[in-house]
Amino acid sequence: MEIAILIFISFGASWLTFFCGFGLGTMLTPVFYMLFKDLEIAIAATTVVHFLNNVFKFMLMKKNVNWKIAIRFGLAAIPSAILGASILINYTDFSVIKYSFFGSTKEIFALNLTFGIILIGFSLIELIPNWSIAFSKQKLWIGGAISGFFGGLSGHQGALRTAFLVKYQLKKEVFIATGIVVALTIDIVRSSVYFTNLDIEFSNKWTYILISLIAALVGAISGKYFLKKIKLNTLNVIVSIAMLLFGLTLALGFINR
Which of 103, 114, 126, 188 has its CA 20 to 30 A from that of 149? Predict the structure, then answer.
């Protein structure tokens, strides 16, 4: 059953991530934590799958990258990702609210609540008519810095990156490919900090990581196939709804790591 859950989440999250640019890391971490019973190892295992999956997606989409946006966004993300990852090593999130939901106790953590509210706000800006925030390309460093920091601190890099990039009305292939490059940049930075400072030993856990990676790669291939059938406006709506749902699940304590 645990292997089946790992395969389902790895495939499904990777498939969804191909369009939205986020979700794989957040959904995988709890699964690995369920398997390994160690949060640091779960985060590290998720980082490995996330990074290699992004390398594979980059190979699929590299010809569509908007390098001007990717470089500006990525350069701003590097120092903030280092800062966020460094804080994670000595940071303990704290619960602000506990409540019961159909007999199950839910905890809302400060970091997830803050991040969820930010995502809900960005998604509503996209979904509600006549609401708009324009980001000039000179302001790309803001999105890069914010997404890099949260990427290093909690792994939640994709949703905020998407929230900024979606405003540029890029072609769907360019939007996805550019996001992949930025994600790879942040993955490289935070991975170097994690593995340099955390005492992590995967030992016999590589089998689970390999299973997850294969399922994620199949999800990415499937995602690229379906991308051809999706219109840009439809993609923008899917991204916005995904941000809204993702923000709500985080803010209400349904996803914790």
Answer: 126
